[in-house]
Amino acid sequence: MAGKIAVVTGSNKGIGYAIVKELCKRGVSVVYLTARDIQRGQKAVEELKKEGYSPSFYQLEVNNEDNVKSFAKHLKKTHGGLDILINNAGVIVKDFRETTYEDSVHVLDINYKAILTIEKYIYPLLKNNARVINVSSDCGHISNINNKYWIERLTKDDLGQEDVDDFVEWFLDSVKNGTINYNDFAENTLVAYRVSKVALCALSKVQQKQIGRNISINSLHPGFVKTSMTKGAGYLTMDEAAQTPAYLALDVDQTVKGKYFWFDKTEKDWQNYDLKLYPKLAMIENELKSM
């Protein structure tokens, strides 16, 4: 792994932090721990240094275009390019059961639209044979959507970014106008989060078709992980959840492109609605009650 340059967004805590740690452990030469908050980011770096690792730090707010542009300039000037990009930064809805326009806009801005900004400025720096991993969720599988029109449009062979953008705007418009039909979704919970992660998985496929240069772009569900986002509930530790992202970044064959992986390193058919891989809120709530 000597000579490789890696970036993990949103990595001052949780899964991102564990991924940085794992990449450092695996011998990646330069691993950027990035965070919106400078103090929290620097504190995370210091904690890893105490464990014998030496990540680099850069303050990065993924939905701030000027900030992303500055980071891209830094990467180009300092390293000339990038070998591994793990788009981990993300947020969940404020209320699992209530869908509001303000919250939906925020979730889509961070979980989907920020990836487009990163694509604009940082993807051009990806070296030949580089790897991009988009951290999604089981909320990102197509079975989270019940609307037949959008299932067909998002799973068609000639899927394009405009299709994904239209899906996102259709959802936001329906929330804004009060016309949202919850029957269009697997559950009436975590709806904006589900839409954002479905959009991210679909975008991953679009990006793979366009990128070229033998670069691989895959998405994954890291598992039900014990983090602040899940309020401490979950079946996997953060270190366990970092294994599949590291596998996709370092171990899987370079020919594996445009796929959707599960936390156990198995590939799932993202386009197969009948798999019913969507998460059920009742399961999460039962886990929280048992704590």
From TrEMBL:
<protein>
    <recommendedName>
        <fullName>Carbonyl reductase</fullName>
    </recommendedName>
</protein>
<dbReference type="Pfam" id="PF00106">
    <property type="entry name" value="adh_short"/>
</dbReference>
<dbReference type="GO" id="GO:0016491">
    <property type="term" value="F:oxidoreductase activity"/>
</dbReference>
<comment type="similarity">
    <text>Belongs to the short-chain dehydrogenases/reductases (SDR) family.</text>
</comment>
<keyword id="KW-0521">NADP</keyword>
<dbReference type="InterPro" id="IPR036291">
    <property type="entry name" value="NAD(P)-bd_dom_sf"/>
</dbReference>
<dbReference type="InterPro" id="IPR002347">
    <property type="entry name" value="SDR_fam"/>
</dbReference>
<keyword id="KW-0560">Oxidoreductase</keyword>
